[in-house]
Design goal:
4 strands; binds flavin mononucleotide; 11% strand; 12 helices
C-alpha cells in the first residue's frame, strides 16, 4: 500500500511534533506507516555505521496487554490507547560484532576517507581495537545516544505521516523478559504511535527554557543571543511559538479526550 500522506514541509514537521498523550484506539496505524517510521529509525545516524539499536513493534493485543502492565504508571493509559508501541533497545553485541563490519564497509563505500586520516590499516589496527574494547557500560552510554537519534527520526516521520507519538518509560528488566531480549540488549525507551486524540493546536506550544539559558557561545554559561528576525521567520514557518497556557479551551479539550477514554478529568484552570 502507498504511504498515502500529503506532502509536508520539514520545518513545519519540526514544529508540529508533540508528545501526544491521547490516541484514537479505534483507528489502526497502517502497517506501511509503521514500516516507514521504523525505516526512519534504521536510517538515522549510527556510530561507525554498526546499527546497534533495535525496535520491537508491539501491536498484537496479547503482547500489548502484557506490555501495558510493565510500563511506568503515568504511561499506562498511553500504552493502552496507542494502537502501536515501538520499543527501542540497544544491543551491546551489535557494537562489539557490528563495528568490525560497519566501519570497514563505510570506508569501502567512501563514507570515510583518507582525506580525514582514515585507512583500512588505521581502522583494523587502531580504531577497531580501541572501540571494541570499551567496557559494556561505556558502550551502553554511547548507544543510548544512538537510540535517541533513532527515536527522534521515528517521531518526526510519525508527525510527517499525520500520526501522534510520545516517548514513554517502563520497567527495563521486565520489558526485556516479556519481549525476549537477548542478554546483550537493554531497554531504552518506548514510543506510543497512533492517530492523535487531541489536535496540535490544542496541545499548543510547550514552555521551553529561554534560548540563552541553554545555548551558549564559546563558553558554558555565556548566553548565545538569538536573532529576533530569525525567530520571527521560524515562527512564521510554523516551527516555534509562544508558550501556551491552560486556557478554558485546552481544559475542555483535555477533559473531552479523557472522558472519551474513561480517564479522570481535571477541574482547575491553572494546573
Ligand atoms: C527520552 C524521553 C522520554 C520521555 N518519557 C516520557 C514518559 O515516560 N511519559 C510521558 O508522558 N512523556 C515522556 N516524554 C515526553 C516529554 O515529557 C515531553 O517532551 C514534554 O512533555 C514536552 O513536550 P513535547 O515533546 O510535546 O514538546 C519523554 C520525552 C523524551 C525525549
Amino acid at each position: 500500500m502507498p504511504l498515502n500522506y500529503e506532502s509536508v514541509d520539514f520545518i513545519e514537521v519540526l514544529g508540529k511534533r508533540r508528545s501526544c498523550r491521547f490516541y484514537d484506539p479505534e483507528r489502526a496505524v497502517e502497517p506501511e506507516k509503521t514500516q516507514a517510521i521504523c525505516q526512519a529509525a534504521r536510517n538515522a545516524s549510527h556510530m561507525g555505521n554498526a546499527n546497534c539499536i533495535t525496535v520491537t513493534i508491539v501491536e498484537a493485543q496479547e503482547t500489548k496487554d502484557k506490555f501495558t502492565e510493565i510500563v511506568s504508571a503515568f504511561n499506562i493509559p498511553m500504552a493502552k490507547m496507542a494502537p502501536v508501541s515501538l520499543v527501542f533497545a540497544l544491543d551491546r553485541d551489535l557494537w562489539y560484532n557490528g563495528l568490525p563490519k560497519g566501519l570497514p564497509a563505510l570506508f569501502k563505500m567512501g563514507g570515510v576517507n583518507p582525506s580525514h586520516g582514515w585507512s583500512m590499516d588505521n581502522i583494523e589496527n587502531t580504531t577497531l581495537p580501541r572501540l571494541t574494547t570499551f567496557p559494556p557500560e561505556i558502550v551502553a552510554y554511547l548507544l543510548s545516544c544512538e537510540t535517541g537519534m533513532a527515536m527522534a527520526s521515528a517521531q518526526l516521520m510519525a508527525t510527517a505521516l499525520g500520526l501522534g507519538s510520545c516517548c514513554y518509560a517502563g520497567q527495563g528488566p521486565k520489558i526485556a523478559e516479556v519481549l525476549g531480549f537477548r542478554e546483550s540488549m537493554q531497554f531504552v525507551w518506548a514510543m506510543a504511535i497512533g492517530y492523535p486524540g487531541e489536535s496540535v493546536e490544542s496541545m499548543g506550544w510547550r514552555p521551553r527554557s529561554p534560548y540563552g539559558d541553554i545555548i551558549y557561545k564559546e563558553k558554558c554559561g555565556v548566553p548565545a543571543v538569538a536573532d529576533p528576525g530569525v525567530d520571527a521567520e521560524l515562527t512564521a514557518l510554523g516551527m516555534m511559538g509562544e508558550a501556551s497556557a491552560l486556557t478554558p479551551e485546552r481544559l475542555a479539550a483535555v477533559n473531552k479526550a479523557a472522558e472519551a477514554m474513561g480517564l479522570p478529568t481535571r477541574t482547575d484552570e491553572n494546573g
